[in-house]
Amino acid sequence: MTLKSKKGWKSVVPLRLKTKSSANFCLLPRVKSDRFGPGETPVCLNVYDLTPMNNYVYWAGFGIFHSGVEVHGVEYAFGAHDYPTSGVFEVEPRQCPGFKFRKSIFIGTTKLDPPQVREFIEHQAAAYNGDSYHLIVKNCNHFCKDICYKLTGKKIPKWVNRLAKLGSAFNCMLPEALKIAAVEDEPNGPEYVSEKRSHPLKDAYLLGS
């Protein structure tokens, strides 16, 4: 997925950590439920369709998906751009522009409060530059797998990123263009998601700060 200045997208610019709180993720999520203990917040994986073809192959455990991690009312995801700065951005949960929302999957819970989660994400964002995005080896689903595991100690479903795993196994057979390409939302294609609020990209996202 290539990041563009688009309504609904807000970058996450890595900052220096002022405390050690983000390293203390135990990590064991925004669903209001009595089943969560005091101080526990649900962490959910929000999955989107990148192509209508998913409707035909999803039930066989295949598909091309975008995903984001939802925690404390914010969804964090990873996308591509041409600059050596973070490709991590935030959107309103289940409202990522350009993609059709499919489902939300409860992964686990975290005891980090909102400021600690934000600090943790900013720290992790430093490892996910936009120009390092790779469809097969470092895509949005790899980011979500990493974040979910560090926050909850649990893994995301394998089917979410199965296509990339298969592509990695047969990488030598893939065209060079596909190996390095990011998944783009078609500018003239259908706008699947209705936006509820706007978060334009900050200049610091593209130029660094």
UniProtKB/TrEMBL annotation:
Stretches assigned to the PPPDE domain: 41-178
SMART domains from the UniProt entry: DUF862
Task: Keyword check for Cell division, yes or no.
Answer: no
Gene Ontology BP annotations: protein deubiquitination; proteolysis
What's one GO MF term for it? deubiquitinase activity
Indicate yes or no for the key word Repeat.
Answer: no
Q: Which domain of life is it from?
A: Eukaryota
InterPro entries for the chain: PPPDE_dom, PPPDE_sf
Entry keywords, A to Z:
Hydrolase, Protease
> A Pfam family name for this chain?
Peptidase_C97
Q: What does the similarity note say?
A: Belongs to the DeSI family.
What protein am I looking at?
Answer: DeSI-like protein At4g17486 isoform X2
